[in-house]
Amino acid sequence: HTTLSRSARARNTYIYSPSPRKTPSTRSGCGANPDAGRLAAEESSEAIQSCIEDAHMVFITAGMGGGTGTGAAPVVAGLCYDLGVLTVSVVTTPFRFEGTHRRRLALEGVDRLKEVSDTLICVPNQNLFRLVGEETSFVDSFRLADDVLLAGVRSITDLMTSPGLINLDFADVQSVMHGMGNALLGTGQACRDDAVGSYGIGEVGRGGKKEGDADEERSAERHPEDECRAIRAAKMALNNPLLGEGNMDIGSAKGMLVNMSGGSDMTLYEVDRAAEYITERVVDPDANIIFGSAFDSNLTGCVRVSVVATGIEEEA
């Protein structure tokens, strides 16, 4: 049967990563065969439903391209979706060195997952090269890939579970994520004396800058007064080098969750400037943008901005 490892639970919100164990369909594992993963999940459909029947929201996390991600994840998501549970899938696609066959399987799995998810966040592992340096170890690189998924989930769950100055609840999240399709996520953190900051999942390495960074830097030179730490954090969240394949523009979002966290020194002025900067990036005047703000004593001197943009249109 397919086992589901429950890694977190908060306010009837579940995070599941499908992990098939040996069954008649998978006696020797999936062997990177999506059909084996799919059959294992289908054989365990009753067990899966019993795990999620009291959930309001479920996150499906997986690395696409193998039997578990491409095969089992869409089955689990479909069961959640059919039960009326808010279903958010946060997945990664393979590195380029993993070959075209695995990439093709991954994209097929992403397409199937998109049909049975309210919101789908897809993070290409290849984009990690924009963050890591030449001396980053192989193990650390894959650990960073796992951190990408964690950052994506936490940027959403923290909005509901962390005590805030401006609190958000499940209804707020549902209004932005229900039936919205493609989504992008980003996190940026900047401190008072930072020159660069971080993307919330590790330090910036020697990887190349994302296209558009030069324009942001030139803009900063022209408007130095805009470069308070909250603005820097917001820019990093919206221009995160891990965002998508380059065929999706965050400005086309139909919904957006924004969480701003800081220490006791975070000012109303900073929150206002960062919020204004973010809303100006969204083209649709009717987009549903919901802001939350939280106090975190560990962020004294710093501001963290997390953005989840939903309803993103794919460019041809």
Describe the fold and architecture.
This protein is α/β, with parallel strands linked by helices. The protein has a ten-stranded mixed beta sheet with strand order 1-2-3-4-5-7-10-8-9-6, with helices on both faces. Strand 3, helix 3 and strand 4 form a beta-alpha-beta unit. The longest helix is centred in the middle third of the chain and has 24 residues. The termini are far apart. The N terminus is likely disordered.
Helices, strands, pairings?
Blueprint: E1 2-9, E2 13-20, H1 34-43, H2 45-52, E3 57-63, H3 67-82, E4 86-93, H4 100-115, E5 119-124, H5 138-161, E6 164-166, H6 170-177, E7 181-191, H7 213-222, H8 229-238, E8 255-262, H9 268-281, E9 288-295, E10 302-310
Q: State which percent range the strand residues make up.
A: 15-25%
Percent of residues in helices: 25-40%
Strand element count = 10
Sketch the topology as an H/E string, one letter per element: EEHHEHEHEHEHEHHEHEE
- Major beta sheet, specifics? 10 strands, mixed
Rg from alpha-carbon coordinates = 20 Å
In DSSP terms (H or I, runs of 4 or more residues), the helix count works out at: 9
Q: SS-based structural class?
A: alpha/beta
Q: Rough shape?
A: globular
Span between termini: 40 Å
What do the pLDDT scores average to? Answer: 78
- Unreliable residue runs: 1-11, 202-226
Strand order of the largest sheet: 1-2-3-4-5-7-10-8-9-6
